[in-house]
Amino acid sequence: xxxxxxxxxxxxxxxxxxxxxxxxxxxxxxxxxxxxxxxxxxxxxxxxxxxxxxxxxxxxxxxxxxxxxxxxxxxxxxxxxxxxxxxxxxxxxxxxxxxxxxxxxxxxxxxxxxxxxxxxxxxxxxxxxxxxxxxxxxxxxxxxxxxxxxxxxxxxxxxxxxxxxxxxxxxxxxxxxxxxxxxxxxxxxxxxxxx
Length: 195
Known about the structure:
It is built from two helices and ten strands. The chain is an alpha+beta fold. The protein has one domain. The protein is globular.
């Protein structure tokens, strides 16, 4: 009954590792035969169809066993390898998909910070459009169906070393900012203050 950590890495602007937008998910595989490569592919397919849409860019899903470090990849799949189109809007702006088990306390909830800039969607509005929030909740529905009856999307607590099934999700109408996803500066404008 392995517990897996999956990293979903989306390429943005360049092949540099710092330009990858990464989200982490956990799944508990209670089946007799575990196939982490198939789960990677399922996650990638859901991500591509329900979040990206037709946007062609590299997306890589890598599976790790949850346990004592060091943890090495046990499976990985990639689509559109080497395709890193330039983003046209701010990569730091994100829509947060929150998920939880029973109560939304810190050890029983998780978050995915989804980057609309990777899909070409407009983030220049005061609030996310209802259609974008619905699309985000649709991604959660897709993730909940990964792997069939023997596989559960879970919230993993590193502090408690425990995991619990995801039973609810939400997405609010406020943008979030993930500063680490911003572009590196390439130029600087400077002037003296005259003193």
